Amino acid sequence: MTLQYQYPEHLRHTLDTLPSSPGVYIFYGSDQTFPLYIGKSINIRSRVQSHFRTQSEAKLLHMTTRIEFHQTIGEIGALLLESQLIKNQSPLFNKRLRIARKLCSLRITDKTTQFVFSNETNFTHAQDLFGLFKTKHAAIEQIRDLADQEKLCYGVLGLEKLSAGRACFRYSLGKCGGACCGADTLENHQQRLKDSLESIKIRSWPYPGRIAIEETSGDKAEYHVLNNWLYLGTVSSLASGKEMVTPPSHFDRDSYKILCRYVFQSDAVKILALD
User: Fold this and answer.
1) N or C: which end of the chain has fewer CB within 10 A?
2) Where are the domains of the chain?
3) For the segment 134-167, what is each residue's pLDDT rounded down to a tens digit?
4) How far apart are CA 59 and CA 64, in angstroms?
5) Nearest Cα residue to 40 out of 258, 265, 244, 236
6) Which segments constitute the GIY-YIG domain (predicted)?
7) Paired sense of beta strands 270-273 and 211-217, if any
């Protein structure tokens, strides 16, 4: 049953308590232990106001009894904290950023293409890995599309069996370049595949150990501590960051994407080695 939208008058007073600054906000229902929704913004008050005006969120607004917030220095801290809190608390209305413990990737060498999984392979330091897929099916769909674009062979890609000395069926249709029968070299086939996937090649962790990302606002600073693409937490001093220990953990897809997109492509971010 879909609830009819009504402006959440019972939450109107909450807006006066929310800051117009970066951070994370949390919607709670009658159960104050588990949140309904966690979000982030560079302006918490403005973002929550937009929720109040969104008709498709009528059920969330009806169930919400309290809104909590955690301020951060800037956007990077808000992104990392939001991701961490969603994974740890699994809010009811958050579909995105939930933990994916078993990711799939493609290991592409000069001669082979394999499906590998994060519970069996350390994605942090592995070489020749392309793509971070939530399922093997999603990875297969990606390379099927590429096969059509680049005339790649399903057999060489491991999507179907090849008969010894015979071309695949797609070659007879002009959809395969012929790596299956010698009309194309295996090396050329694999290089076209790598080139097509270059934008999603997984980067190895580029530091010997832990780092701190300094984020500033005026005369204030925070240090976001990470190791092996895993966000460990945010501290107010480098000394506190050096005391943080990296727990055994899975590859964190979301921290990886946040860092690649917002940090390592920016010359304005200061990165400090802690080890």
Assistant:
1) N
2) 13-89, 104-200, 211-273
3) 899 999 999 999 999 999 999 999 999 988 878 9
4) 9
5) 258
6) 20-95
7) antiparallel
Number of residues that make up the chain: 275
Distance CA 274, CA 266 (A): 20
Q: Which residues pair with 28 in a beta bridge?
A: 35, 66
Q: Which helix (H) or strand (E) holds 143?
A: helix 136-150
Q: How many helices (H) and strands (E) does the chain have?
A: 8, 10
- Which token pair is 193? 């595949």
pLDDT at 173 (0 to 100): 95
236 φ/ψ angles, rounded to the nearest 5 degrees: -95, -5
CA–CA separation, 13 and 264 (whole Å): 40
CA distances from 46 to 11, 24, 40, 41, 108 (A): 14, 12, 11, 8, 45
The arithmetic mean of pLDDT across residues 174-191, rounded, is 95
Indicate the residue type of 99.
I
pLDDT in tens, 37-49: 999 999 999 999 9
Q: Is the pTM of this model over 0.90?
A: no
What SS3 state is found at 216?
strand
